[in-house]
Amino acid sequence: MLEPSNNNELPAIPAKRYFTIGEVSELCGVKPHVLRYWEQEFTELSPVKRRGNRRYYQRHDVLMIRQIRSLLYEQGYTIGGARAHLLRKDDKDDDAIRTKQLIELMVAELEDILQLLK
Q1: pLDDT in tens, 28-41
Q2: d(CA 18, CA 21)
């Protein structure tokens, strides 16, 4: 996610399960209306909504918001560029998982062949 050097000015994330929009705003240095806008622009952001349509963010949401903030405010990405960057990262993660599964499958098949040859 974020490198430690990018988090120096942001407070530590407390060990809680859910955060209100006000708490996330303070933790990430972003105003609440910006968070609501980002929810529309980034499908990765999906806080739980409860009574009265109140938003409750989880730790992974806070980390994602910090990453988006870094891309937009520190690295100079546009909204579209940040969205594309996050999608590319997800694609790379998916490719790595698929590659690892394929290698494990190949190893298992080679071990089966080795057993047949003995």
Answers
A1: 999 999 999 999 99
A2: 10
